[in-house]
């Protein structure tokens, strides 16, 4: 029952990323600016921080593959990068004291790592040919801003939700 | 102290790297059709996307309306100016149509559909890649509705936006012309007011400028800024006469043998809602051209 709650939540965010976000006019500010919502990734990170890391990694693989199939043309890239990033950020999070500032910092670091990982793989296989300085300037910065704001908004309700869940299932 | 990668984790990492490379090389293979797993997932997710998309579009439509009201006055002014020409253009059009019909009848071409004839399927956009490296759309029509791989996709006014790259049973994916991977080789042409057509190829997309590269233009051709680029229909994949865009600048390519033009896409690729998938009535026989 609790499993399905998390799944429904993640799946809803997954749909919002692909259907709702492209419709809204916030990416019309400039032609060059690319704002990428990574909501599923952020919630996965919070799930590993405050809920169960085990589930977090499993869902990372699952939603990575879903992203690959539904929103990308090359299979496997998101599944790999998403899982690896979630694991690495989780490994770092074990050494620090979690509060809202730390969580935002870690998610921002995670978004950077994920974007950069996918960028490197896509650059190698020729899905994109964006230059590195443009990637930093027009993509990474606005993306970080959006996702940091999203993390701050969801921090308190989601932390409570995941902590309540993890009491039931154990780590 | 916990280490980042123990022995076991290293093995898992390496194995998944191998799996990653295998998957990438599989999906980069030319002309790969969607496997049944992909089709299934795409269709199931597509159903949910459809449900989420309806209220979202209403909400987004509100913002669009506010925008439209702002622009309405300016647009009205411009349209009034254009309207003056309308009557004469219509008359000319009528004359030319009847003339064309007569000439075709003389040539016995009546039952032979031309390259520009096609049937349309209308479809709604239900999803779009949120990372802007993959320029893919998901449509709510699939195999059941008659959509096939490789069909061109247009918006109103015959403006080309891409072509179908993967088909599920109830959904299909469109690879936009702004997609770096398979933009290559749309045969295109410019029809100047005087003189013959200029042929070339759409060879790529410049993400920073938002323009398509129209290459392989003969060096002597007179290409000017503002000319309209359309599909030529020569490759047999795209029908003739779909509008691609307008030329914004022209340069000689690096070897000095051909010219390359920057073409601004006619369709607004960022704000698409309803599209048309078109199917040519004549199937030009070609066997060699697999994939792109």
Mind explaining what this structure looks like?
The complex is a heterodimer of chains A (about 170) and B (about 290). Helix content of chain A is about 75%, strand content about 0%. Chain A is built from six helices and no strands. In chain A, helix 1 (about 1-20) runs antiparallel to helix 2, helix 2 (about 40-50) runs antiparallel to helix 3 (about 55-70) and helix 3 runs antiparallel to helix 4. The longest helix of chain A has about 40 residues, at about 130-170. Chain B has a domain at about 120-280: Thrombin, subunit H, CATH 2.40.10. In chain B, a hairpin with a 7-residue loop joins strand 1 and strand 2 (about 135-140). The longest helix of chain B is centred in the first third of the chain and has 72 residues, at about 35-105. The relative contact order of chain B is 0.14. At the A-B interface, helix 1, helix 3, helix 4 and helix 5 of A face helix 1, helix 2 and strand 1 of B.
Number of domains of chain A: 1
CA radius of gyration of chain A is 16 Å
Number of helices of chain B: 2
- Per the principal axes of the C-alpha atoms, what is the gross shape of chain B? globular
The CATH superfamily name of the domain at 118-280 in chain B is Rod shape-determining protein MreC, domain 2
> Largest interface, counted with CB-CB under 8 A?
A-B, 50 and 49 residues
Strand order of the largest sheet of chain B: 1-2-5-4-3-12
Structural class of chain B: alpha+beta
Number of helices of chain A: 6
Topology order of chain B in helix (H) and strand (E) letters: HHEEEEEEEEEEEE
Q: Any idea what the CATH architecture of the domain at 118-280 in chain B is?
A: Beta Barrel
Structural class of chain A, by secondary structure, is mainly alpha
The percentage helix of chain A is over 70%
Element pattern of chain A in H and E: HHHHHH
Tally of strands of chain B: 12
Task: Give the oligomeric state of the chains in this entry, treating copies of one chain as homo and distinct chains as hetero.
Answer: heterodimer
- The radius of gyration of chain B is 23 Å
Mean pLDDT across every amino acid position of chain A: 86
Distance between the termini of chain B: 53 Å
